[in-house]
Write a structure and sequence with these properties.
The complex is a heterodimer of chains A (75) and B (731). Chain A is mainly beta and 75 residues long. Chain A has one domain: SH3 type barrels (Roll). Chain A contains two helices and five strands; from the N terminus they run E-H-E-E-E-H-E. A five-stranded antiparallel β-sheet of chain A has the order 4-3-2-1-5. The longest helix of chain A has 6 residues. Chain A starts with 10 loop residues before the first strand and ends with a strand. Chain B has four domains: 157 residues, P-loop containing nucleotide triphosphate hydrolases (Rossmann fold); 80 residues, Helix Hairpins, CATH 1.10.287.1770; 195 residues, no CATH class; 155 residues, no CATH class. Helices cover 61% and strands 7% of the residues of chain B. Chain B contains 32 helices and twelve strands. The longest helix of chain B is centred in the C-terminal third of the chain and has 35 residues. The two termini of chain B are 54 Å apart. The chains are: A mainly beta (75), B alpha/beta (731). Chains A and B meet through helix 1 and strand 4 of A and helix 3, helix 10, helix 16 and strand 10 of B. Strand 4 of chain A pairs antiparallel with strand 10 of chain B.
Chain lengths: 75, 731
């Protein structure tokens, strides 16, 4: 399952990040294996998505969200 | 002393910079790029110090030109002291950069910003404990409320930049790898950077070229030492340190479930309301600048300037100077000056509006909302505003591109803005469409706006696909907390940017006006070189140039030198195209105000298709001098500037030629041309699709860039070399 499959209002934990253009930046922004992420909303046009991670709000495109493998968790 | 101000974007860096320096600032550009470089003097009676405001960064590993400037500045240690501004409201992520900086031996003072909000939320951050743990001074401040600024300045004044601090220690496995690297790099900070960024770091070191393969081998050996992916090892270690640090020093208020930002975002980025609200805000910005208010202020301002000039002109006349000098001053210099300052009111209104949108945090939301729609064109959500402004006037629009985040965005956007039909081009359509297209005139005028927009968008796509290939894919953006913009900050933003336009674009503009003045007011009449009056433009050098270059314009339907002269005069200001036509056709009265006076002359001189080609050419060809000087200023590179002008000229010429040539054939020829073009487009499309399918291995991976994990040092390339060396060694 990837971050793209998580619906607004759900929590998940990062399992793996596949290689992509922004991999290093995504890691530096605090998305590391084991990090908990809350999916807040998608933009009005359906893409990008807004997530809450480490207490701040980050937006990324679905192209990158697809490369972040996660596991859904309850809160 | 040289101090660098470093921090995450949106941490309040610019506000703090303004508080620390006051009005003593110089704004320039970093060499070769369109990134602002701001240097100011520290407000201190004790010491002399320059503060450099570096572009905001999240990490020393970079993904854009701006970030690279900041990161290189740090890696080359070009400062004596760093003031690291840390936003208390997202401490965890802000401290990541702090820990990267702590890996170096550069002296650091931390300014913990946003403490007023922490207090308001009844939370506590123990800054003394934080300072003790990090080993550097921590000064709690609120940049927007001006709290703690004096204390920060005092800390800088009394700071001993020669004292050393112990470096951040990681676990044994990591320390071993760092030590291995350090054996070759001889610098702990850069060894850690090599751990994270790989080969890119080596330009900052003096590692021998023959040692590089050894370093790369070490790097690849290190991969097996860790359970985590190697590029996650250091970030993971840092974030673990940060979490521990925060749990010891930060007392959170768990009662707050929904922040003000959450509440505002519920509306502003709402699934259905988000887009209409965005459209409304954009419209209001446009309306403010070009609506009744903006026009009124501009008119008043221009009137005032005119009065001033008239006053001086009268003074000059009474001095009884030679007609040459008086013409130079009144028509050349004042004409230029009036054009420069005439832009000022609208420019300032726009910059004011943009500063408010930016400082409040809405601009990031605009990018979030519009990303999907604009990414195809290689533009970001923020490019929308300059594009829209372009319908009013290219000059403020091009200048406004400076508020965009990335160098590539700024370049692409300023290069396409001149295609967007500005307000000054409207009278041209009015006269031609009115004279020749009767009832269809509205459709013709509308088609001009559409052609301009289409050419702009297609050019953006073309630039993105060819020249700025690497730039397009990156989007990862924080949505910052909403903030109330401060008056001081907004004003400084507005004034700095406007002043910069006046100084830089103004000088080029003035010089060009004097040249154009010379060309249009001097000529050889009856073998005599002399100063001409307004209605003798056909005798002027400009008139002669117009006649000389007429053959070049034949293929696009010009068969009268008057058309070329009118187009040339449009270089001064697009408004003068119609005015010049009036003079050349000997029509009296104000043709700009009342276009119908020109109708008979135009009906006699143009066929509808010639007129259409003329309009398209006037729309797309090189913009007026003011826009050209703004372009020169914003592109900040002669290469790009010349390229843009040539590109615009070529596009205008080709399109006008296509329209004229196809338009003047009979229906059968037109249909067969259209059919041929369609077939060619189809074939190109199929070939492209075929190449694409062959070339890509998977759908989701866009390949590698220097910043992605997969392109870290390529072991394979060096493998043979290393093995060979080992063999030599054994022998």
């Amino acid at each position: 399952m990837t971050l793209q499959d998580i619906k607004p209002g759900e929590f998940c934990v990062i399992k793996n990040i596949k290689s992509n253009n922004l991999r290093k930046r995504i890691i530096d922004m605090g998305l590391i294996i084991g990090t908990k992420v809350y999916l807040k909303k998608t933009a009005p046009l359906g893409d990008p998505v807004e997530i809450i991670v480490r207490g701040y709000s980050l937006t990324l495109r679905k192209a990158e969200a697809r490369t972040i493998h996660v596991e859904r968790v309850d809160k | 002393m040289n101090i660098a101000l470093i921090g995450n974007p949106n941490a309040g860096k610019t506000t703090l910079y303004n508080q620390l320096t006051g009005a003593n600032q110089t704004v320039g550009n970093w060499p070769g790029v369109t990134v602002e470089k701001k240097i100011g003097k520290l407000k201190s009676k004790e010491i002399q110090a320059d503060i450099v405001d570096l572009p905001g960064i999240y990490s020393l590993s970079t993904i854009s030109l701006e970030e690279e400037i900041a990161s290189n500045y740090i890696m080359d240690r070009e400062m004596d002291l760093i003031i690291n501004i840390v936003d208390a409201s997202s401490l965890e992520r802000n401290l990541f950069l702090t820990y990267q900086l702590l890996d170096s031996n550069i002296p650091i003072i931390i300014a913990l910003n946003g403490m007023d909000i922490i207090d308001k939320n009844k939370e506590i951050i123990d800054h003394e404990a934080l300072s003790k743990e990090l080993g550097v001074p921590v000064v709690p401040i609120s940049a927007s409320k001006k709290i703690g600024i004096e204390k920060l300045i005092h800390e800088v004044e009394t700071f001993n930049i020669h004292q050393t601090r112990s470096s951040v220690q990681y676990n044994d496995a990591i320390e071993k790898v760092i030590e291995d690297f350090n054996h070759y790099i001889n610098d702990r900070f850069l060894s850690i950077r090599f751990f994270e960024d790989g080969l890119d770091t080596l330009v900052h070191t003096d590692v021998d070229e023959k040692d590089q393969p050894k370093l790369i081998k070490l790097y690849h050996d290190a991969k097996n030492d860790f359970e985590l992916d190697i590029d996650m090892v250091l970030p993971d270690a840092r974030y673990n340190k940060i979490i521990k640090l925060i749990s010891n020093t930060y007392e959170r208020n768990d009662l707050i479930k929904e922040t003000t930002t959450d509440k505002i975002d519920k509306i502003l980025t709402h699934k259905y309301f988000g887009l209409p609200i965005f459209a409304m805000i954009m419209f209001s910005v446009f309306f403010l600048a070009f609506g009744p208010l903006g026009t009124y202020i501009t008119d008043q301002f221009v009137w005032l300037i005119d009065q001033f000039f008239i006053f001086i002109i009268n003074g000059i006349d009474s001095l009884g100077m030679s007609p040459y000098i008086s013409s130079l001053i009144t028509k050349g210099v004042f004409g230029g000056l009036a054009a420069v300052v005439g832009f000022l009111p609208q420019l300032m209104i726009l910059f004011l509006a943009m500063a408010v949108l930016e400082d409040s945090g809405y601009m990031s939301r605009a990018a979030f909302i519009m990303d999907r729609a604009l990414r195809r064109f290689g533009l970001s959500g923020k490019s929308f505003i300059p594009m829209l402004i372009g319908f009013g006037c290219s000059v403020p629009a091009i200048t406004a591109t400076r508020t965009l985040d990335k160098d590539e965005d700024r370049k692409i956007t300023s290069m396409i803005i001149p295609f967007v039909s500005c307000g000054a081009k409207a009278p041209i359509y009015g006269v031609f469409a009115g004279a020749l297209f009767m009832n269809g005139s509205y459709i013709v005028v509308f088609s001009m706006y559409l052609i301009g927009l289409l050419v702009a968008i297609l050019s953006a796509i073309l630039f993105k696909k060819t020249i700025f290939k690497s730039a397009s894919a990156n989007y990862i953006m924080e949505l910052p907390q909403y903030r109330k913009p401060t008056v001081k900050n907004t004003w400084l933003h507005t004034w700095e940017r406007s002043k910069d336009f006046l100084m830089k674009a103004g000088t080029i503009l003035l010089a060009s006006f004097i040249i154009i003045w010379f060309l249009s007011y001097f000529g050889i009449v009856d073998g005599q070189f002399k100063l001409l009056t307004d209605d003798q433009i056909s005798q002027s050098f400009l008139g002669h140039i117009g006649r000389a270059i007429l053959p070049v314009f034949k293929p696009i339907g010009f068969n009268d030198w008057r058309s070329t002269v009118a187009i040339l005069s449009g270089f001064v200001a697009k408004e003068s195209v119609v005015g010049t036509l009036g003079i050349l056709y000997g029509v009296t009265g104000d043709v700009v105000e009342n276009g119908s006076a020109l109708y008979p002359a135009i009906r006699a001189a143009f066929t509808p298709i010639q007129a259409y080609a003329f309009m398209v050419f006037a729309l797309l060809a090189i913009p007026c001098i003011a826009a050209v000087s703004a372009l020169k200023r914003e592109l900040n590179s002669t290469k790009w500037f010349v390229f843009t002008l040539v590109y615009e000229m070529v596009v205008a010429y080709l399109l006008a030629m296509a329209i004229y040539q196809i338009g003047s054939r009979d229906l059968g020829t037109v249909l067969s041309i259209i059919f041929t073009v369609l077939v060619i487009i189809f074939v190109i499309f199929m070939i492209r699709k075929w190449i694409k399918q062959k070339g890509s291995a998977c759908a989701t991976c866009d390949g590698c860039t220097p910043n992605s994990g997969c392109s870290l040092p390529m072991y394979e390339e060096y493998k043979e070399q290393i093995e060979k060396e080992n063999k030599d060694h054994e022998n």
